[in-house]
Amino acid sequence: MGVSALVRGKQVAVFRTGEHEVHAVGNRDPYAGTPTMARGIVGRRDGHPYVAAPAGHQLFDLASGEGLEHPEPSLATYDTRLVDGFVEVCVAVRTRPAPSA
């Protein structure tokens, strides 16, 4: 099971899958439409970590966000890193292009 966090306005589910391994995906379950992915069960298949969606138990690869049975729909994925015991999640911010004169 993971934790949910609000990072730059995005609901993110964060999972620690090893001592030095952290993954972050979108917290919205693409099948149920609910913000519950952080409550999913984490496991490994062929050495790759996955999360099972709480509502329907669909499996999603934590590295790619793709479904293990069906590639679509998928979860958004975010880069993570551990710094001095803290988890940092990178959520890109879109900038608006400068208006042309």
Order of strands, widest sheet: 1-2-3-7-8
> Can you identify the CATH superfamily?
Rieske [2Fe-2S] iron-sulphur domain
How many helices? 0
Number of extended strands: 8
Ends distance: 51 Å
CATH topology: Rieske Iron-sulfur Protein
Mean pLDDT over the full residue set:
91
Structural class: mainly beta
CATH architecture: 3-layer Sandwich
> What does the largest sheet look like?
5 strands, antiparallel
Give the radius of gyration.
15 Å
Question: Which parts are unreliable, with pLDDT below 50 for 5 consecutive residues or more?
Answer: none
CATH class call: Mainly Beta
- The fraction of residues in strands falls at 35-45%
User: Could you say which overall geometry the principal axes of the C-alpha atoms support?
Assistant: globular
Helix content: under 10%
Quaternary structure type: single chain
- When the domains are counted, the total is 1
What's the SSE pattern?
EEEEEEEE
